[in-house]
Design goal:
The complex is a heterodimer. By secondary structure, chain A is mostly helical. Chain A is built from 15 helices and no strands. In chain A, 54% of the residues are buried. Helices cover 81% and strands 0% of the residues of chain B. The chains are: A mainly alpha, B mainly alpha. Chains A and B meet through helix 6, helix 7, helix 8 and helix 10 of A and helix 1 of B.
Chain lengths: 533, 47
Amino acid sequence: MSSTVLDHDVGHHEHHGPPAGIGRWLFSTNHKDIGSMYLIFALVMLFLGGASAMVIRAELFMPGIQLVDPDLYNNLVTNHALLMIFGAVMPAAAGMANWMIPLMVGAPDMALPRLNNLSFWLLPAAAVMLVLSFVVPFFPGGGSQINTGWTLYPPLSLQVGMAMDFLIFAFHLLGISSVLASINIIVTLLNMRAPGMKMMKMPIFCWAWLVTAFLLILVVPVLAGGVTMLLFDRHFGTSFFIASGGGDPVLFQHLFWFFGHPEVYILILPSIGILSHVIPTFARKPLFGYHSMVGAMLAVASIGMVVWAHHQYTIGMSLAAVNYFMIGTIIISIPVGLMIFNFIATMWRGSMTFETPMLFAAAIILTFTFGGLSGVMLAVVPADMQYHDSMFVVAHFHYVLLPGAVFGLFAGVFYWLPKWTGHMYDEKLAKIFFWTNVISFNITFFPQHFLGLAGMPRRIIDYNVMFTEFNVVSSIGGILFGLSHLLLLYIIVKCIRGGEPAPARPWEGAEGLEWEVPSPAPFHTWETAPEVK
Amino acid sequence: MNMQQNPQLRKKNIRTAVILGVIAVVVMLLSVPFWINLFKLAIDLPG
């Protein structure tokens, strides 16, 4: 990546700054305002999803049924997953894309600013539908609670009450929002780059988002088709997934996981993009293997799209199909390993310092790799037959998604907060947050591997007394992990309200156009495109 | 954004967006018959 600026014009337009009042936010077409709204929305959803997770862990603290009934437990499991995936992680990544992509490529804004506004404002509407799907069953005539988990497998999802319809419409709105946002990102990256910034000079975060956006466009419509078929089966007499009518519920599993597996990469790739900036900055070295990094992301996305059925080994597929999905899944570890290798090679003999973003990067390399290794275990068919539907799977995907997606986003938050707010965050508090967060994360999820291997099933409210000790440890870790995010909130609010003024380039080793603009970034930037050598 | 994009760039952006939108719609519409037939093919494979 090169970012030599020959001519730039930033920060000269504060005189026509943001409009006043609520209109600024409702009708905003400014990428920074929309990015901020995405990030605030994600933070709210993180706390809602976290609250449901803490109730789940509190209930599992001891065997037996203590706090919630089994229906509510299943509803919470569903709700937690959906809020975290669609409410927290994806909008947070989209918020960072909105904030940073135009700054990084030297564009004055996203290519389609009005579409950007629509993409964001569909999200609160979807969130309302999502929350309604959770609460509607508590009202008279509201029907049964959603007990399917985020996968919505029929025939169970055909039997749930009207809450499922709210959820299906929430999926539609979320899908439309994601596809529109992806279109905007792709168009911005293809058409709005500064003169001289060729594709292979684009910052890796932009490449990560380009790949992610294409993935979204290719898989979200399939989910939309699947849930629409589900809606038709529920209300319009079709039998796509009803065995008695000639359909097959397993078809839905294929449709869902064709979306669901690439969704994992949709969540992870933006964070990989963030790490590709954080690690070179704090190692004070250029990223090792820029081209191989781009290639690895393309490989992960393309192979990731054709291995979905490793989530369904136990449905009784043919041996040929099972072999194909197993080998394909294991092959993904090659490009992912390449990314990790590039990160380590970037650190090698670098002048490293460990500010909070770099601490998160180091933690990600360790814990995400661990999650990847348990993923290889799960990819192996005969082993998976044993681990399937156990707490081992829960431990695995939390080790993949928390470090791979959430910690990466935390690294991004701390890395770019000075640019967003104009203030340095409280480094001491941030480091306390890091250690509390990462240690409690491991206390929560590490014991779940042993629980799963010993036979504890997932998604069940009660368990055998032999699983008590590890569950107690996991629950204590879970409550600590949840509470640690209050410190994150405090650090962010404190940073927004004030603090040591941040220079344009707050990190010594940071490179790229985004660090050429003052901190906080003015309302309008790059009205005259910079030229990149 | 208060700034106006130049008309040519604006046209190019909208054209690219429309192409991508059409791809998304086509993927959604094709997914139903495609998956039903692939699914039928998969369960007929010798195992």
